[in-house]
Here is the input.
Amino acid sequence: MIWEADPATLIVLALLVGGYAAFALALKRWPTVIQLIAFSGAILAIVGALTGPVDELVKQRSFALYIFQQLVLVFIAPPLILAGTPDWMARPVLTHRLIEPLARFLTRPLVAYILFGAAFALVHFPPVCDRVCHVHPVYGDVDTVLLLVGLILWFPLLSPLPEYPRLSYPMQVMYIFLLMIPMTAVAAPITMAQSVVYIYYVEGPHPFGLSPMADQVLGGIIMWVGQGVYLMFVFSAIFFRWARREDETPPFNRRPVPLRPLPRQRSHAI
Amino acid sequence: MAAQPRPIHAEQTSYLEGGGIYGWLTTIDHKRIAVLYGVTAVFFMALGGFEAMAVRTQLMYPNNHFLSAQTYNQFFTTHGLTMIFLVIMPLETGFFGNFLIPLQIGARDVAFPRLNALSYWIFLFGAITLNLGWLYGGLPNGGWFGYANLTERYYSPGPNIDFFDLGLLVLGVSSVMSALNFFVTIINMRAPGMTFFRMPLFIWSILVTVILILLAFPSLTVGLIFLFMDRYFDTHYYRVIAGATPILWQHLFWIFGHPEVYIMILPAFGLISEVIPVFSGKPLFGYPMMVYAIIAIAFLSYGVWGHHMFATGMGPVADMTFSVTSLLIAIPTGIKIFNWLFTVWGGRLRFTTAYLFALAFVIQFTIGGLSGMMHASPPIDLEQTDSYIIVAHFHYVLGLGALFAILAGFYFYWPKVTGRMLSETLGKWHFWLAVWSFNATFFPMHFLGELGMPRRIYTYAPHMGWDFWNKWETWNAYIIALSFIPLLLNIYWSLTNGERATEDPWDARTLEWSVPTPPPIYNFAEVPTVTARDAFWVAKYGSVEASGLTQSAPAIAPALVDVSKIHIPAPSLYPLLMGLGIFGMALGMLIGWYRVIFTAMALLVFSAIAMAFEYPNWGEENPHAVAESFLGLDSRKVGMWSFIGSETVFFACLISTYMVYKSRSLGVYDAGILNIPLTSFSTFVLLTSSLLMVLALAAFQRDDHKWGTIWLIGTALFGCIFLGGQVYEFGDFWLEHGMVFNANLFSQCFYTLVGFHGFHVFIGVVWLLVMAFAGIFGKLNAKRSLAVEICGLYWHFVDIVWVVIFVLVYLMRTVKGA
Here is the structure.
């Protein structure tokens, strides 16, 4: 069987890998093993979800796998890309005098949160989705948009640069908690709809022998419960890192512990 | 909330002394407000208990006629509402929350003391509104969930449901206010060194609870507003005949209702986590896991509301989803149960009354939790729903759970609150009577449920196998009532002859025990510096793990500061007046007398303005901000952010309803009527006003108050133009097109959504004008620019909401299927 891919997806992949390699070669520095693993993981996730057999099934109108693709694009790939980016690679870009003001604005937690929520809700809003999601030249662009807003969304949690401080741990927990609101607001109506909401998916039969309705419900569940469980894990990871950081300060030191956030922590509200 | 300093005389030590009746009415001291909450809640507990006894008496025999069916409906409904909203919530967050938060985090008061008093008075008047049926027209009778469409005027013509609707609306305002207050207090007012992971677990539980309140109550408010409009303005939010669905109410109610369950149980967890370590003589086992469990429960609580609706036929997939998410909650809850057990394990146990109640809580709550897991399975739930096994379940988690935790907290904190000890002998009588009678009453309800006895029926036929257990339960319910007699005797004995309590009668672990008993009005003569979790224990014994047998330092260091220099907020009458204003508005609505409404509204506005200008230094920094805030933010700013969070949910509910109902709307009016060119202009004007707001703030920050004022006036002017456009638009629809408010689903949803937004713009304009006046009189400068910034936050929020409304309501109107 031939492993096929959309041109748009290939361009995005090529830009990612090419850019990474070009920066490493130009700056003559080598990322750490963990960073390489994380970055390759992101590339593999995109390749696995957006090309080949999975994408083939999506083109045969599998709604469930379409949702899976989108979750990979916003929840799996961006954190891995950010974790795989060394600070020396991000610095020349994000501290460039033309890029910095925009980057600072977009990565403000509240802006990132609203941008992601609005973009994610918009591409799932039936009238919008019916027009752009499955028209082929645009299709790839929707994926790119999701990847970009995903990167912006995760930036306040996983910023690779000390110049762009991460959110403090309590705010990270809050951020993840509030993230459940737009995700549930998109997933719940799709899951509980009484009819097929996207015109594209009205035509059957869908892969795996599912009726359009059953496929839609399955997709809704993947988005709702899948993201919920995933965010629970993210929250747990953040929480225990926070708890460990707090425990590293000896529990009964006599010296008052300053309440100022550590240098890498962001100090304004979301 | 700056306040004028008031000299405190050295001899005026206890917060309970001085002031007289007027002092209590105008108090803004968190400890006095706590006592007010406590006394009010105990009164309503007696009332709710009386209703329960009447209900049980009615069910004692088959075909009994002690109560009529109508009275029965009113009593079981009001019993539920009273116990949830007027007993458990005010005792946990109102009494314990108010009393303990500042004391446990080392603060002198809450962040906004007058807002705190206002919350109490609104709570009191909301409680009275809910219970007005005792005097006139009958109590609420639709169940505490008040399912639509039985609550429509057509099915329930009397005022019963109006009491329910308006009472809960008023109570919701109070809850959100105090939640906001506590949130800011915990975030911003902690003593130096009190990091998040050094906070007592009760503080953690309250922090998570108030976040739940802020994000859950708006959903209920929206549902209640729709109900209110259906009943008063003849709209069709829950009327099938107009294309609406009564299930909307169930979604709105349970999106609130399930977090509400955790709002009631998390503070109970917190209290238990305070009591158990003290009497086990050990630090709490697995503190980070306990915190984790609380947050995880809050996370999950928003994804489980559907398990209250299995019987509405949501379909197998939605049922399965809600079942899985509901079962997941068992994991963090299990963590908590085991951690309490491990805290007890190997400790030096002291079986005081408080400890006994806490241990009973752990066991009984587990029983209630297990039956809860059964209901989480849809097939089992379909058999059990609306049967007595559900009644058994929620009485085990709330009655034998939350109430036992409250009693544990009561016995534990009574000495700190009153300065007197309770009798342990009477306490143990109370405990054993309560354990026996509560279990004997509620456990057999599991059997009755399995035998098929439905809930909410006022009587039943004989020989169905229900006769014995019903009689048994009623007699034991009387013992529940009796079990409170030792408690009352104990309170009386303690207040008259009780032994004087020392600062630290239980050899406890947290900061509230380090202050004199009862605490002075300023709490801490010297704000403590916290160096560890269980800060007071460490101060006494040197380390958290110390056995507590050898004291290394004197427990209470004598205060070396001059207490007369401590700034404490001065009392204020306006919270009470504002509460009266809100009460008057609800009352006027109930009796349909518009003059009362407008008088009350005038009182409300007057007191709000008077309160804002009560102190001349209203723009100064908060003198209570003893702690360095971890956000580096001002309390008012954090407060505005949490208010915006709450408002976001409010608008999200309104917008979702509009989106759902637009496609279900029948009749001639639809989104085609909307005037896009006009609204595009209004949108442009509103967005420009946001720009002017930014300019105004920038001007004040560089101390240019002339241009700052000009930009502020400009912002207000543009807001007025926007409002004018909206008035023109509404008038055009109403008069030219004849689209009256309740013409169809589209019209009512449109007017409600856009109207509420317009109201927010109106409030914003008034606020801006007040700011502009302050600017004209030279009251605003760089130091006070924060006041402008907060106003600006609100203004930008209102604009963002408008952008969403403009896109979804106006621009998408022609999109097919939108």
